[in-house]
Design brief:
Elements lengths: L9 H10 L7 H21 L9 E5 L5 E3 H14 L5 E6 L6 E2 L9 E9 L10 E9 L9 H4 L8 E7 L3 E6 L4 E7 L4 E6 L11 E3 L10 H12 L4 E2 L5 H11 L2 E4 L12 H14 L3 E3 L19 E4 L1 H11 L9
Parallel strand pairs: 3-5, 11-12, 11-13
Antiparallel strand pairs: 1-2, 3-4, 5-6, 6-7, 7-8, 8-9, 9-10, 13-15, 14-15
This protein binds 2,5-anhydro-1,6-di-O-phosphono-D-glucitol and manganese (II) ion (MN) (2 copies).
The site of one manganese (II) ion has 6 residues, from strand 5.
Amino acid sequence: MLQESHVVTISRFLIDEERKYPEAKGAFTGLLSDIALAAKVIGREVNKAGLVDILGGAGQENVHGEYQQKLDVFADQVMYRALDHTGLVACMASEEHEHFIPIPEKFPAGDYVVLFDPLDGSSNIDLNVSIGTIFSIHRKCTDGERGTLEDCLQPGCRQVASGYVLYGSSTMLVYTSGTGVHGFTLDPSIGEFILSHPDMRIPNPPKKVYSVNEAYFTRWSEEQQKLVSHLKNEGGFGSRYIGSMVADVHRTLLQGGLFMYPPERSRPDGKLRLLYEAAPMAFIIEQAGGRASTGTQNIRDIQPTELHQRVPIYLGSRELVELAEEMLANTSPMSSS
Ligand code: AHG
Ligand code: MN
Ligand code: MN
């Protein structure tokens, strides 16, 4: 039976962390708590998605031209409403919005910039397969009272925190603020995220697993094809691909391995978005001892130029990402022409 005196809730954990920094005023703790609350609300709807008439398309195309599901819209609204009025946030950006999202004039603005993918892996909703929410937090870098587009376009190395929520067989919140990666599992009976995975590290040696949508094999460069063939033939690797980045990255964090979304002839920057997917996951993976790269460059070094920019990604166990970088080194740049 659970020893309740040993239970550490996410609120207690955040307060204890905050005490290590005497100058901290509680704003960051408040922000993370707001995101945890949003995660519970989204998780509740995700869990009953098979029961209620919330499934199916909302009848509009999002900025990526993908069919937007109702739960995407719902999750986006929940994140926005959890953060718009708190006085902690300077501005936001969401994968579901073409432009950055200012804080309404009627509310005070704060110092933090929050970028999010409200529902990741949404094509899996109807299939009862794990999906997630990803978030990235920066400090406002401009002087004005309120956040601007420029505040959203900061490189990943300037994140103050990032994390994800996985709506899987359990709901888990995993985050880093630069002092390790910590995972919390939702106990639905008390409605609290409980510290279940303190100081997560990618195991070494890793499990020999690569994770990529191999159906795109013929669209890849010769070097990329050779990398995957090498892993499975000479390397004896197995393959796992869920098609929800949060779930694939979570497995990579727990077991090690190599997650990839490579460039393709028709999509030279791959599919995944730098600000809402690649940079926040890169911070987590690096904090757990791994590496995240475009194949040629550290993901967190990229200076974003637009909100929805995409980037090829290779992340996971350090030596596997380095192997990928080595094998991809002589790839000529892909162009769609
Ligand atoms: P989203 O649902 O936020 O648009 O993201 C879907 C992403 C990501 O979760 C996953 O890694 C990838 O799409 C899968 O793409 P493919 O179906 O092309 O493999
Ligand atoms: Mn996504
Ligand atoms: Mn999404």
